[in-house]
Structure formats: structure tokens, C-alpha cells
Amino acid sequence: MASNASEAGAGPAKESTSYLSPLYISVPESSWPIVYHPSYNISFAGLEKLHPFDSGKWGKIVGFLIEAGLLQQHQLVQPLEAQEADLLKVHTADYLNSLKWSANVARVTEVGLVAMLPNFIVQRKVLKPFRFHVGGTVLAAKLALDRGWAINIGGGFHHCCGYRGGGFCAYADITMAVKFLQRGYAGPQSQIQRAMIVDLDAHQGNGHERDFLGDKTVFILDAYNVQIYPGDNAAKPAISCSVDLTAGVGDNAYLDEVSKALEESLNGSFQPQLVLYNAGTDIMDGDPLGLMRITPNGIIKRDELVFRACRTRSIPVVMVTSGGYQRSNARVIADSILNLRDKGLIEGPTAG
């Protein structure tokens, strides 16, 4: 385990590489930089209902955006499924092999009955959707560099690192998105050196933190409830700016703390070339796991705050949707994206 942790925490590869990831597909100018695939949604004989996460929320978000007239179905960007060759750029072979055992996937997804299913079914019904999310986050990060902003309607699996998963997170999409761009896997014209992760999910982002331990090319701002899962003290040294919150925090205190931390981080000497924003909505009042008391309007203001801070500084920003364990989350996320449009912080394609 120690050797794996060291490997996962190492900085970007120093050697030059000619590898180009097939996940970076060509995107027409007529598309919004909003990434989604119908395969994101997990549905299998009601098994998905055994976890509090709404595993169909991503499709609902898209439905609300289309209904509101923001875009049409054909203007969405459909990502490819991440394949083993890409996953191995960040994940250890041992970890990926462990997912070939249903019991291990059951532990990662926190759904015990998954352990009783044949693994080929688990691969197709559970892990394949996650791999599409990964492809979406990797592609969206490149789109943000090209367009100034991008949103992956899914992704944000911040409890998974290169050598282990957990908390409903089977693959480290955040780590992959950052490291792929740092290593030039999208081509030299899209290569970056410095990235900032702004993690505003209710839970500590211990996965990407373990991956970037000791890596000075990645700045991590993490605002989370210190009283809940995962309480990963070993990962905390990777946090560059920690906002320690407690259960019951409300809009005013939360937004004040986040705003202050974001301004201090972006006004510092780090100067990121990309901000990856993990926009979990499990901070919302009533969430059974986040235990915070942020209103839907507070979430909308939070997202606006992050996008405004990045876009006024001309820093490309990519948003992933991460956690949120209430049926109303999809509506709130869609409303937040519509608000970003209304405030001029995101804009449509140049071509119709």
C-alpha cells in the first residue's frame, strides 16, 4: 500500500510523451461545452435505489435544461467511455483488477447486494456508467481550455484515488482530468502546468488529495463538513486552503467563508491555468449525508460566485456535479446552470 500511495501522490510525469488520449474527441462549434451521455444514468432492476444517491439525476438535469430552452439535445457533447489504457495512466493495475471482483465494487459503491451479482453484470450496469463519467470529465477539462468554461453534467468522484475507491467513487476522474492536461495527453497546445481544484462538495475530497500529496503544481481548496465521512487525516496535507465547516452551517456563514477562501486563493501567487470545480449539492438543507443547511438559492449563489471569480480573471473553469442525495438536486443544478447563463457567466456556441 505504501508504494502505491507514493506512486499516486507523485507529481505529473516529467518525461515527454507522445500519448494522445482518444477521449479528446473533436467537438463542433455548434455544441455547448456541456458534456453528457445517457449512459451516465445507473438503472438495474431497482438495485440503484439501495443507495441514497439519485443515480438518474444526470438525465433529469439535462431534461430540465432542454425544457427551459437553454439548448437542444444535439448541442450537448457526448463523451466516450474511458478505456483501460487511459485508466492505467492514473490507476494502478492492482486497483483496476480488484474491480473485477463484485465484492470489491460493492464496497466502493456502498451497495452490499452488488457483491452477489456476476461481475460481468456489475461491469456493464455499474462500472461502465462510471467510465462514461470519467470520459466526460476528461473531455470537459479540455473544452474549458478551448471555450473558457465547460460543465460535465456528471463526474466529481472525489473519494477515489489512483489505488483505491470508496464513497460511491470507483474512478479518479478529477485526478485524470488534471494529470492528462499536465502530461500533454490532449496535445502540446493544450498542456498546462498549474491547476486548482475547488472542492465544494460537503465531504472532504480525499481521493484527489491523496493523488496530489506533495505536488506543488496543484492547489486544492476544500470546503467541507469536518464531522462527516471520510475524515481522512492522511490526505489533509495536500489541501492548500482548507475551510473547515460543521453540521448545520447556513447560507450566510457558508458563502462568506467560501468567498473569502476563493478570493485569497485566486489572488495568491499560484496563478492556475485551469480551475476544476467540484460542485457537490450535498450541502443542501435536508441532505442525509452532508448535514449542512444551505438553501437551493445558496447553492445557486455559490456556483455563480465560483464562475464569476474565474471568468473575471480569464481562468478556464470546468464544473462537475459530484454528490447530492435528494431527489430535488437535479432541479437545483439545472436552475444554477440557467442562472449562470442569465448572469452572462456562460454563453452559447458561436454557431447555431
From TrEMBL:
Protein keywords: Chromatin regulator, Hydrolase, Nucleus, Repressor, Transcription, Transcription regulation
UniProt keyword Hydrolase, yes or no: yes
UniProt record, GO biological process: epigenetic regulation of gene expression
Matches recorded under InterPro entries: HDAC_classIV (IPR044150), His_deacetylse_dom (IPR023801), His_deacetylse_dom_sf (IPR037138), Ureohydrolase_dom_sf (IPR023696)
Limits of the Histone deacetylase domain: 51-338
The UniProt record lists the keyword Zinc-finger: no
GO CC, alphabetical: histone deacetylase complex
Catalytic activity line of the entry: N(6)-acetyl-L-lysyl-[histone] + H2O = L-lysyl-[histone] + acetate
Enzyme's top EC category: hydrolase
Top-rank taxon: Eukaryota
Enzyme Commission number(s): 3.5.1.98
GO molecular function: histone deacetylase activity, hydrolytic mechanism
Chief location category: nucleus
Subcellular localization, as worded in the UniProt entry: Nucleus
Protein family according to the UniProt entry: Belongs to the histone deacetylase family.
Main function: Responsible for the deacetylation of lysine residues on the N-terminal part of the core histones (H2A, H2B, H3 and H4). Histone deacetylation gives a tag for epigenetic repression and plays an important role in transcriptional regulation, cell cycle progression and developmental events. Histone deacetylases act via the formation of large multiprotein complexes.
PANTHER family: HISTONE DEACETYLASE 11 (PTHR10625:SF23), HISTONE DEACETYLASE HDAC1-RELATED (PTHR10625)
Subunit description: Interacts with HDAC6.
Name of the protein described by the UniProt record: Histone deacetylase 11
Annotated source species: Macrostomum lignano
